[in-house]
UniProtKB/TrEMBL annotation:
Domain of life according to the entry: Eukaryota
Protein name, UniProt field: Copia protein
Organism: Noccaea caerulescens
Lineage, broadest ranks: Eukaryota, Viridiplantae, Streptophyta, Embryophyta, Tracheophyta
Amino acid sequence: PLTRKSLSGFVVLLGNSPIAWKTKKQQTVSRSSAEAEYRAMGFTVKELKWNRALLSCFGIQHEDPIVLFCDSQAALHIAENPV
């Protein structure tokens, strides 16, 4: 059915190898594509933190900053300037 809810998705790479990936329908209807992308970034960061903790349990320490790519300039602007 048509719900107007956006889809969020990500792929986590360790080196050049994918170690996690997911696509999920967002729980709320966003008012703009920028809002949907911003929500997707938040969802992805939560998953990245969980994956970092899981790798730590396996003895793989990754202390470097994690790079998050996003194709929405508006969402990146929102993320850089929290209210």
